[in-house]
Amino acid sequence: MIQAAAIRRGSFFSLSSQLQQCRGIRVKVINSNLDQALNLMQRKMQSSGIERMIKQEQLTHVKNSEKRVLAKKNLERKIRAQDLARKLKTILVQKVR
Questions:
Q1: Under the phi-then-psi rule, with left for phi > 0, alpha for psi from -120 to 50, and beta for the rest, what region is 46?
Q2: What backbone torsions phi and psi does residue 23 show, to the nearest 5 degrees?
Q3: Residue 10, H or E segment
C-alpha cells in the first residue's frame, strides 16, 4: 500500500532508499562473480546515502567526553520537551472542561 502510493507520487526512489537503510543492503553473488556484486553494492550504497554517512563519520572524530556531553544535552532537551508537552496537555484538558 505504501509502495503503491509512493510510486504514484514519483517518490519510489526515496522510499526504497529508506527501506535499504532500515534493513541493510543485500547483494547476491551470481556465478561466483564478486566484482559484479561489489559494483552493485557500491551503487546501492551511493544511492541510499550510506556511503555519504560513513564518509562523514570518518572525517569528523568526536571524543568520548564530547559524546557524553552531547548525550547529556540531548537527554535534557528531551526531558524539557516532555515536561512542556505534559504541561500543555493539562492546560488543554482544563480548557476543554
A1: alpha
A2: -105, 0
A3: none
| 41 within 8 A of 24, measured Cβ to Cβ | no
Tell me the pLDDT tens digit for each residue of 55-82.
777 777 778 998 899 899 999 999 999 9
Residue with cell 560513513: 54
Alpha helices, H only, the chain:
2-9, 12-23, 34-48, 50-59, 64-96
Closest listed residue to residue 51, CA positions, set 28, 25, 33: 25
Q: Which three cell numbers stand for residue 22?
A: 532500515
* Number of C-beta neighbours around residue 28 at 10 A: 6
